[in-house]
Amino acid sequence: MKINILRIALILLLLGTFYIIFGFSSQDGETSGGISRNITNTILQFSNKYNTLKQEEKEQIADKTERIIRKIAHFSIYTLVGLLLMGILSTYPIKENWRILLSVCLGMMYATSDEIHQSFTPGRTPKITDVYIDTLGVILGILLILLAIKIYYKYITKTLRNTTKNVI
């Protein structure tokens, strides 16, 4: 019963994440660029050195920083996708190698479909490099789940050993 609740919660979180990604990809180029620029400017304002630069230099730095922030956003949200996919698949009795492969493939397929979706959005263009970045994010999410599972089982095993010693 508890496992079904966990599965449902993880599936709902994954669908919510897909919805958010779809929403971002539905924004036209001007809206998407404006949001990215606002985030970039907010972050750069914390730099005293940036604030002392001439406007032209600020624009150059903001352009470069914005591209990096956009790629970090791709990587981060797809790390969440990887966490959720691997989390869901870890609740089923599937061999670990198959869970990993399935998680990577599903994440890459969604990333690809997201880039195709962007090709139909005004002012947006699909980029294969974004699919690569997204897939790397998925892989990081998978690795984090594998690490969490290892730590969990190591802790459980240690706790059981200590409990058994106390009983004997």
Structural class: mainly alpha
Q: How can the largest sheet be summarized?
A: none
Rg on CA atoms, Å:
21 Å
Mean pLDDT: 93
Distance between the termini: 33 Å
User: How many β strands by DSSP?
Assistant: 0
Q: What is the succession of H and E elements? A: HHHHHH
Task: Compute the number of helices.
Answer: 6
Runs in which pLDDT lies below 50 for 5 or more consecutive residues are: none
Overall 3D form: globular
Pick out its properties.
168 residues; single chain; mainly alpha
Structural features, described:
With 168 residues, the chain is mainly α. 85% of the residues lie in helices and 0% in strands. The protein contains six helices and no strands. The protein has helices spanning 2-26, 29-44, 48-51, 55-89, 96-118, 128-167. Helix 1 runs antiparallel to helix 4, helix 2 packs across helix 4 and helix 4 crosses helix 5. The longest helix is centred in the C-terminal third of the chain and has 40 residues, at 128-167. The mean pLDDT is 93.
Provide the fold topology.
Elements: H1 2-26, H2 29-44, H3 48-51, H4 55-89, H5 96-118, H6 128-167
Give a quick summary of the entry.
This protein is mainly α and 168 residues long.
